[in-house]
Design brief:
Radius of gyration: 19 Å
CATH architecture of the largest domain: 3-Layer(aba) Sandwich
Number of strands: 3
CATH topology of the largest domain: Rossmann fold
Length: 160
Amino acid sequence: LQAFLPLIREAHGRILWIATPSLIPIPYVSSIHACDFAQNCLARTLQIELGPWKIPNILIRCGGMDTPSPAKNALELENSMKEWPKERLNLYKEALIKNQESLSKFDKKRTDPKKAAETVFKALCAKNPKSRYQVGHLSKSAAFFECLPQALVDHIMSGR
C-alpha cells in the first residue's frame, strides 16, 4: 500500500474499499466478519492518515447482498454438523437452528448486487466523494449500531 500511495497522490486518485458493515458481532459468522472488520479498520485508519493530502479514501459497506455465498455457507454448516460429536451438536444445535431461521428470513430481503455496482460507479465519478457509502439490506442499521455502546450492541445481538 505504501508503495503506490505516491502514485495515487501524483495522479490525484482515490482509494475505494468494498466490505460488509461487519462491525456488529453476529454469532456463527465470525470468520467472515473478522476479515471484513480488519478491512473496515484499515480503511478508517487510512482515512485519517491520508487526510493531509486530501486523497479520497472511500469505504462502500455492502450489507445483505444477494450472492450464492449464503446458500453455500448454510450447506457447509449443515454438512459439517453431520460430522460433529453428539456432545457438541447438543450444545449448539438449538442456537444454530434459530440462527439459520433468522438468516433464511434475512436472505429473502437481500439486495441485488447491481445496487452495489451503482454505488461504486457513483463514488468513483463523484467530484467530492463521501468517505462512507451504505448499500444493501440493513447496511444503514449496521451503521447506526456502530454508534451505540458496545455493551448495548452485544446485548441486542445476543437476544436475536
